[in-house]
Amino acid sequence: MTSAEEAFRNTKTFENFCLLQAQAVGSGPKGGNAGNGGWAEVSFEDLGSTSINATIEREHSDRAKKITIRVEGDAEMTVLADALEWTAHRLREGGAANA
Q: What is d(CA 58, CA 39) in angstroms, rounded to the nearest whole number?
């Protein structure tokens, strides 16, 4: 990946009784679907004592070191952002109703 392909890269470490680093990287909107070249990635990495579990289709990992989500296309970037905001909101609410 060249810097020309990458329009943004933001990283933040969240600390509590563990350290979890989150990273958002992407090209920014490119005006269409995956064929137009737009993409985004979100990564979560254990920097200390974070118990991360992941299920991968047809595979199982008891503990993941890093989880990366990649989408391609403008609409996909939008729904990923919306899904992450919605999930964070729901987690803060303690998983309350599906509104």
A: 25
Helices (H), 9-97: 74-92
- What is the per-residue burial (b if ≥16 Cβ within 10 Å, else e) of 1-11? eeeeeeeeeee
How far CA 38 is from CA of 14, 26, 90, in Å, comes to: 28, 8, 28
- Helix, strand, coil % (nearest 5) of the chain? 20, 40, 40
Mind listing the pLDDT tens digit for each residue in 25-76? 888 888 888 888 888 888 788 888 887 665 544 455 676 667 777 777 787 8
Residue 29 and residue 83: Cα distance in Å, rounded?
17
For residues 34-58, one letter each, b for 16 or more C-beta atoms within 10 angstroms of the residue's C-beta and e for the rest, the string is eeeebbbbbebbbeeebeeeeeeee
